[in-house]
Amino acid sequence: MCLGVPGQLEEVFDEDGLAMGRVRFSGVARNVCLELIRGAATAGDYVLVHVGFALCRIDATEAARLEELLAELEAETGGAGVTT
Question: Distance between CA atoms of 71 and 47, rounded to whole angstroms?
Answer without folding.
Answer: 18
